[in-house]
Amino acid sequence: MRLRYSVMAASIPSFYLNFHQIPRKIHLNPTLNISKFPQKPIEIPSIGGICKRGSLSEAFQSLSELFKNQSRTQFSFDDAYSSVLELCGSKKAFWEGQQVHAHAEKVFDGTPHRTVFTWNAMIGAYVTNGEPLSSLELYREMRVSGIRLDAFTFPCILKACGMLKDRSRGAEIHGLAIKEGYISVVFVANSVVGMYTKCNDLNGARQVFDRMTEREDVVSWNSMISAYSSNGESMEALRLFGEMQKANLSPNTYTFVAALQACEDSSFIKQGMFIHAAVLKSCHYIDVFVANALIAMYARFGKMGKAANIFYSMDDRDAISWNSVLSGFVQNGLYHEALQFYHYMRDAGQKPDLVAVISIVAASARLGNKLNGMEIHAYAIKNGLDSNLQVGNSLVDMYAKFCCTKHMDLVFCKMPDKDIVSWTTTIAGHAQNGSHSRALELFREVHLEGIDLDVMMISSILLACNGLKLTSSVKEIHGYIIRKGLSDLVLQNGIVDVYGEFGNVDYAAKMFELIEFKDVVSWTSMISCYVHNALANEALERFRLMKETGVEPDSISLVSILSAAASLSALRKGKEIHGFLIRKGVVLEGSLVSSLVDMYARCGTLEKSRDVFDCIRKKDLILWTSMINAYGMHGCGMAAIDLFGRMEDEGIAPDHIAFLVVLYACSHSGLMNEGRRFLEKMKHEYQLKPWPEHYACLVDLLGRANHLDEAYQFVKGMEVEPTAEVWCALLGACQNHSNKELGGIAAQKLLQMDPDNPGNYVLVSNLYATERRWKDVEQVRMRMKVNGLKKNPGCSWIEVGNKVHTFMSRDDSHPQSYEIYFKLSQITEKLSREGGYVAQTKFVLHNTKEEEKIQMIYGHSERLAIAYGMITTPEGTSLRITKNLRVCGDCHEFCKLISKFFKRDIVMRDANRFHHFKGGVCSCGDFW
To answer: What is the pTM of this model?
Structure first.
């Protein structure tokens, strides 16, 4: 009993030391004041009994009296210190504990005749005080002084080896325990097992455990179960727990906690519930440690109902109990429940600590609850928690998610300590919220600080460079990644993505090919690159290869490939993707269902768009907007307006995009009054400030209706400076209605405001050509050439079979080119003979001979696509054509005649809208 000091003092729960820093201030508890030597013996109560009562002041007073009134030989030096140190640990009185330890050192140094008991006590004190090197140095002195070790020496020095992860020295001491015959002592063997587990040598620990002759001590089993559990070997931990039960050994609190911790995820739910049943069977009362472990386990399983039930059934709760439930809600995405529980926690008088603050900050961030987030931030400041690194990082992330970059920067700048997470989170927050320049500024500071870059930081900087269109910087970062050998898949995918955004398709493709193990993100990045750069055929081909390699597409890749099919009006491809979604049981929601509606609309099948729209019960704003847009592009203006009204009746408030598409629908259906009404409604009823695109829509609407003076007055009276889009809309209307004066004003303004857009030069050139101002036309074209700009050539495509065929104007590259031109001449001849068709050369805006103008019209890309379709499809089959430019007036008339004399319905999508040609009539009513 005399040497229980070394064992008992070492048993102070380690989590006290791990989670609470030693305060550097005087506590309200009395400081220890011990005299050097005693005077006269008096009768005093046992110090052990006083410590059991839990009074620190009485314990210190008693220890002081022992020194004043008794000789050292009359009381147990180690027993006294052991009892007081153990009480300090239980009361978390670490400053007082250090005082006791310091006094013990002085007494030890002043002791002339030291026994093994005294040595053990002092070695144990060093271990307890977190000084393992000092304890091993004292052990070496003990050996040199010739003091023979006893069984109680080993637990302390083995624990010191474990704390230092010094396996070699621990193995030496293990050998000494065998040599001295102490390895058969249960607590020595347990200490050896503990040492090996702390040194991450589970095999060594298991060998000692298996060789133990007496394995009826529950501590031995606990050591091994805990070791396996903490090292991620859950199955072995649970197997040992099962063996322990078969051996009829009664588990204690530590056994249950270790076994419950081994149930690391929902795959262990059966074993976890078995252990829970064993807990209930073993006793009627579940102590707080086991209850906390049960809560944490059910939280890992995603069973927060069970976790909450255990919490509410607890008689005694500590901070860990509250935090386990709170963090469990957050980890399982139950953010509303987390906030409710937090308020319940405050109402119950439980003060949130560091862990609780971090959890509730995360929940507020995920919910976008700025008010609650700022409230917890204020609480953290008030209670001095904001200086903690983890809290600071969590607050930075929260404000980033709130898009409050100023608040985020303030938190970041006030952090006393910053780690790589702090820098990365702040840089990512700026990059994701459009503060690209600030992100690069912080990145330069990182370089100056000499901090090593991680994958997340480089990914964020790539995003910032993308936002600022810094191609050279992206290449520099790419070079840095190669030099540092950072072949991380996330970075490789990011490089592909950024090069695609910049239009460097070749760079993106080369980078993609260099990726050894491509995941779904790699494929999606490359597909998106092709879609973004109008290479829809290449995107579809890449999607085919992706499926062949066995990579399952995700929702993002499916949205991208639906966009590719839509841009080509490739209905068959679109239907294939829709079928794939149905076969895989993919839930149609969010951007995926909106993309499906858009795909069918852009492929010319408005009915299928509506079918998909109608089958979705819970429709969000994006889905409503997609369907309104579908009606608009097909010239169904009134249907679009009716659907907009239904959306409002459902309680869904329109945003800027919703108003833009309904104005677009009005524009393409000539609904002038309705268009004016929607612009006013937007401003006054919904308090939305119109974008330039909204004004451009109304100008286009007025212009198409030949209300050019009103359109010009509207432009001059705009609340904001008219943009290039507005002048472009006015210029297009002036060209259609041959208004030279306004057209000249609009042309001048347009080229001043947007001199780098080749489409603007083409529009101005066409205006001059209709007025036969050929010198001005030549000047505009020369200016384009000097600026390095090129006109987009006319291009049309048609889907036949399972392939999309593309045609340029006057194209002869197709393998069936001869047959196509022969068929086209037959069509033209019949339409001229039976339909009175005569080419309208006024639509050829070139200064050339009449015969050449006719040949140029005959070679328009949409005619080649129609001729090919008539060669390769059965009579009466509808033809679906897509063109990248606005269809000219002559080709429009040509298509109407084909639909009448060849009984072929034609669905054509040009740059402006859809045209449904049937029986000699177009759905646009010649208004496009």
So the answer is: 0.70
